[in-house]
Amino acid sequence: MFSNNDKISSRQIKRLLIFDLFGTASLLLPAQLAKSGDGAGIWSIAAGTVLAECYLRMLLACCEQAPQDYLGYLRSGWGNIMSRLFYGCYAVICVTACAWAAKLLTELMCDSLLDTSNFSAALFVILLLAFYGGICGLEARARVYEIMFWVLVVPLVIMLLLCIRQVQAVQWFPMSVTDSENGGMWFFIGMLQCFAAFLPLTFLLFLIPHVTDKKRTGRAAYQAAAASGAAVLVIYLILLGIFGSGALAAEDYPVVTLMGMVKIPGEFVKRLDAVMVGVWFFTLYALIGSSLYYGADTARRVFGKRNEHGREGLKAKRAYERGKKRWFLAVTVAVYGMAYWFHMDPDVQAAVYEVFYLIGVPFLVIVPAGALILNRIRR
Fold this sequence. Notes:
By secondary structure, the chain is an all-alpha fold. It has twelve helices and no strands. Helix 3 (about 70-80) crosses helix 4, helix 5 runs antiparallel to helix 11 (about 315-345) and helix 10 crosses helix 11 (about 315-345).
């Protein structure tokens, strides 16, 4: 029998974070980094991973000092009004990230498995599953990903090992930007893109009430970030060695294309790319589920009733669960509308990208850093 105490273990946290970090990074980063030319993207991945480790250390410092939850920690540093405003911004970022990931997963499924005309129906099914996972709670989601972890990792590792024989290491060189005038710019753009891929680490701040051992949680988070960075680096080197920087930059989802090129002895699987899309289906779905869960939870904490939490009694708990489902339903509907808008108007998504990199990324760094400094000064 599993416990049902709304707590998750450090092992489950590690696997949740690996799912959240690996999916979009391995799917999109190789093509983006190849635009810098040859092997320069290697240094961007390394620098982005180092920045992510520094960011993670700051997040864990906040988690260790937070007595109960992150909202209370923000309130003790920034004050009540600013903390609620910041929490509302976190909710907007989570909802936007969920819509972007849902749109990405739906397009990937339509391109690989379905017809493009089925976008709205596929998006509806994906978000319906995410809604069901959200109302089942964090602990249920953690159990599912814990079970699915090795089911997905082992086939992916086998496929990558089969690809190594096609790698031409000469295409990794020169490991520098070929454009001397804009070399520094390409490096910093790649580093920022890599760092942004690690920003789901921010979810650790909302996990404070759900962990029992914060030290083990910190070790699990470091291991997840290191494993994800190493996996993305290996996949980038394999893709670069097979496609070359020019062809790699022209691909939308190069790792999915690579899966379709692998030949298994006997060829008993004809559409291997369709089978391996399942890896990215579950990793992207994990990001959708996490961002939907935390988006609904943070929105409920800011805009819901103040006495909604901590109530006792069977009647109060039932009312709390009904309110929780309403918030998840409202956020899911908002995500559906936003994701469909991104699909119909790519210019809107491009504008959201720019706003996220210009405002969202600094916000996610400055707010916990400011809370950490202010709380230390006040103590």
